[in-house]
């Protein structure tokens, strides 16, 4: 099984000296492709210096920032002869044996993708930091090769067969945030449950969001989720959301949500840490519901116009 690694990079110069050596140290890889997605810092120059004369690693530059989906698709084109594409984000440092664990997970008959748990390092000292440290986020501890729901598929550290990627049409480049869910929706429709497997090696991530950045990302994700829900009947299920979520978003009292979010920002830091994590989780869920509802309104106005 031929394995290639694809890493999209955007303004990640500060973490590349930490992440790139760990990515290049992975065994069982035939090719590494780093795709600089129009960075405005010196990411591309630093990448080339870190890679040096490595015979199987290369840097591809995109002039303008076009998003992670586009960068990953350009990387997929460069490794088209491989059997498996392993994706790492530029802010993760996979421990030794991570790629080999992905390959073992993909040896299961039904498997077409595999995902690793993410371990956040240096979380911020705010509500979101409390949420990261104490909240249940993403894939928890599992045995290698365990079948897991598609909602745990995140491209920060994952592997997908090239055949499955071609079947899905690659990453949806219309989506700026949530492109991993969009791919998961297509893979779920094509291959069903049992096709996503876990590995047991936690992959450290250094660039953890602040609360404001996390809320902005969730807001964008809610807008993209509305589009996915219109185009794919399995999107909400794959995202792990209940059937009543669209109805709840439609009738959610938006002014009350804004007031409650303001109170959370003002008072949250004065609460005990366990309560801070709960407040952050609630604020993220409330933002998702608000943005999902707002995108529905915008779509309705657009159709009427």
Which regions contain 5 or more consecutive residues with pLDDT less than 50? 297-305
Biggest sheet: strands, sense, closure?
Answer: 7 strands, mixed
First-last Cα distance: 52 Å
Shape: globular
Polypeptide structure, described:
With 305 residues, this protein is α/β, with parallel strands linked by helices. The radius of gyration is 20 Å and the shape is globular. The C terminus is likely disordered.
Give a brief outline of the structure.
The chain is an alpha/beta fold.
Give the topology, please.
Elements: E1 3-9, H1 16-24, E2 31-37, H2 43-51, E3 57-62, H3 68-78, E4 84-88, H4 98-105, E5 113-115, E6 118-120, H5 127-134, E7 157-161, H6 162-168, H7 179-191, E8 196-198, E9 203-205, H8 211-231, H9 235-238, H10 245-251, H11 254-267, H12 273-304
Helix pairs in contact: 1-2, 5-12, 6-7, 8-12, 10-12, 11-12
Task: Write out key terms for the chains shown.
seven-stranded mixed sheet, alpha/beta, 47% helix, 12 helices, single chain, 305 residues
């Amino acid at each position: 099984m031929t394995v290639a690694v694809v890493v999209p990079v955007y303004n990640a110069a500060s973490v590349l000296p930490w992440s790139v050596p760990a990515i290049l140290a992975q065994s069982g890889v035939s090719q590494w492709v780093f795709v600089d997605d129009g960075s405005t810092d010196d990411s591309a120059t630093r990448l080339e210096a870190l890679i040096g004369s490595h015979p199987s690693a290369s840097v591809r530059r995109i002039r303008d920032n076009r998003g992670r989906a586009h960068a990953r698709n350009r990387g997929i084109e460069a490794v088209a002869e491989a059997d498996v594409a392993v994706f790492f984000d530029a802010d993760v440092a996979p421990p030794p044996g991570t790629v080999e664990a992905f390959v073992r997970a993909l040896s299961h008959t039904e498997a077409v993708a595999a995902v690793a748990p993410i371990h956040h390092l240096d979380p911020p000292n705010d509500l979101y930091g409390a949420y990261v440290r104490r909240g249940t986020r993403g894939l928890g501890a599992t045995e290698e090769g365990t079948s897991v729901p598609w909602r745990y598929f995140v491209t920060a550290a994952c592997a997908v067969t090239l055949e499955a990627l071609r079947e899905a049409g690659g990453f949806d480049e219309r989506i700026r945030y949530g492109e991993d869910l969009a791919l998961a929706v297509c893979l779920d429709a094509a291959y069903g449950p049992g096709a996503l497997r876990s590995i047991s090696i936690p992959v450290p991530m250094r660039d953890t969001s602040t609360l404001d950045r996390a809320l902005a990302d969730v807001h964008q994700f809610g807008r993209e989720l509305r589009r996915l829900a219109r185009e794919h009947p399995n999107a909400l299920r794959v995202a792990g959301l209940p059937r009543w979520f669209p109805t709840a978003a439609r009738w959610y009292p938006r002014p009350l949500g804004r007031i409650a979010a303001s109170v959370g920002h003002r008072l949250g830091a004065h609460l005990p840490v366990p309560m801070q994590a709960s407040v952050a989780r609630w604020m993220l869920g409330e933002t998702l519901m608000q943005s999902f509802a707002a995108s529905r309104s915008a779509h309705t106005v657009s159709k009427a116009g």
